[in-house]
Amino acid sequence: MRPEDIDWSNLDFNYRQTDYSYVSMYKDGKWDDGELTKDHTVTMSECACVLQYSQSCFEGLKAYHTKDGRIVCFRPDANAARMHDSCERLEMPAFPVDRWVEAVEKVVKANEAWVPPFGSGATLYIRPYMFGYNSVIGVKPADEYMFRILVTPVGPYFKGGLKPVEVMIPDFDRAAPHGTGGIKAGLNYAMSLHPIMEAHRKGFNENMYLDPATRTKIEETGGANIIFIKDKGKTLVTPKSDSILPSITRRSLCYIAENLLGMKVEQREILLSEVEDGEFDEMGLCGTAAVISPVGRINDHGKITNIKSGMDEIGPTLAKLRSTLTGIQEGEIADPDNWVHEIK
Question: Which residues are catalytic?
Answer without folding.
Answer: 184
